[in-house]
Specification:
The chain is α+β, with helices and mostly antiparallel strands. The protein has a single domain, classed as Maf protein, CATH 3.90.950. Helices cover about 30% and strands about 25% of the residues. β7 and β8 form a beta hairpin. The longest helix has 17 residues.
Length: about 200
């Protein structure tokens, strides 16, 4: 079964493709559909934005589509940047711009008040049914950048249980505990029931 992954972000694609592998799909990326440009994500929630992407790509390609949207929710910033995480520092900004803005805004926040979470909502649609799953992971925002891996806010998102930021983890380490990993594993179980397929337990 062919499924389209609705993202132009190569870093997200690198993380998501291994998570989709256990589902046994032939995953097509948007590189195969050059007619699909940037999709305007004007929803007011992560779920709405994920639905917008999934529905748009499904309608254009006619193929089952999986999309996700992710936000970083910082308690000291009253849940910001949230749905604006990718453009926290403005439209067209770089990962480093967002990270530097976050560090700057939290300059005077004590360590015990720097709690945050990553939240991912993923959507599957085949044009007939829309399936939704979510995954979250709790952590802290560091005062300085740590690690060179990952992308986005990974260098400042610290997991106490692991003793590392996401940027200090290998891709496999991050996959096991991350918001995106949890969301796609949850989605895998939902798709398994919906399509009546067997997803390999080794990777699910």
């Amino acid at each position: 079964m062919k499924v389209v992954l609705a993202t132009h972000n190569k870093d997200k694609r690198k993380e998501i493709l291994p998570l989709l592998k256990p589902m046994g799909f032939e995953v097509l990326t948007l590189d195969k559909f050059p007619e699909i440009g940037d999709i305007i994500e004007d929803g007011s929630t992560l779920t709405e934005n994920a639905l917008i992407k999934a529905r748009t790509v499904n309608q254009i390609t006619g193929l089952p589509t999986i999309a996700d949207d992710t936000g970083l929710e910082v308690d000291a910033l009253k849940g910001r940047p949230g749905i604006y995480s990718a453009r926290f520092a403005g439209e067209g900004c770089r990962y480093s711009d967002n990270v530097n803005k976050l560090i700057s805004e939290m300059n005077n926040i004590p360590e015990n008040k720097r709690t945050a979470r990553f939240r991912t909502v993923t959507v599957f649609t085949d044009g007939k049914q829309e399936l939704i799953a979510e995954g979250t992971v709790e952590g802290f925002i560091t005062q300085k950048i740590k690690g060179v891996g990952g992308f986005g806010y990974d260098p400042v998102f610290y997991i106490p249980k692991s003793g590392k930021t996401f940027a200090e983890m290998t891709l496999d380490e991050k996959k096991e505990i991350s918001h995106r990993g949890r969301a796609f594993r949850n989605m895998g179980r939902i798709i398994e029931q919906y399509l009546n397929i067997s997803i390999t337990k080794e990777n699910a």
